[in-house]
Sequence to fold (172 residues):
Amino acid sequence: MSNDPDITAFFELLKIFYRKVDEEISRLSEIHAGLKCRLGCSDCCVDKISVFHIEARNITHHFETMLRTARPHELGKCAFLGNQEDCRIYEHRPYVCRTQGLPLRWIDDNDKGERIEWRDICPKNNEIIVLMNLPENACFTLGHFEGLLAELQKNAFGNLRRDQLRSLFGEI
Fold:
């Protein structure tokens, strides 16, 4: 895929967005030093993950040669996994991949209109963390960053289009 000068500024904004996400992840990783997420652990690296089109375009921008010459990982796992269960696009991995493994927290409304807090964590990390006992600031709270990413997507493309990661291998 050729370099599209109209999108270059959005790639820079995405880079800033990722830096802010990574700062929050770094803070949480210090709190939860025992997380079992390590090189070679790919339990969360599954097929059919979709990302905003701006993130997909960022990947195709940085990995054009790989997408043209390499093969995706076998079906069932993320297309971007390497032979040793490593991420071939780690530096430019999408937002969803950056937050996996952490204790996640989000607020939703139930059918009665009441606000309910939900929490989740990778089962491997659940063995070492009592999720519901964590203070709010020890969880990655979903909502804020997703809103920022959606806004970036809308500003870049005028829509909320999403692309499956595996499909990127067929676009080049």
Summary: The beta strands are 50-52, 104-109, 115-120, 140-141, 162-164. DSSP finds six helices and five strands in the chain.
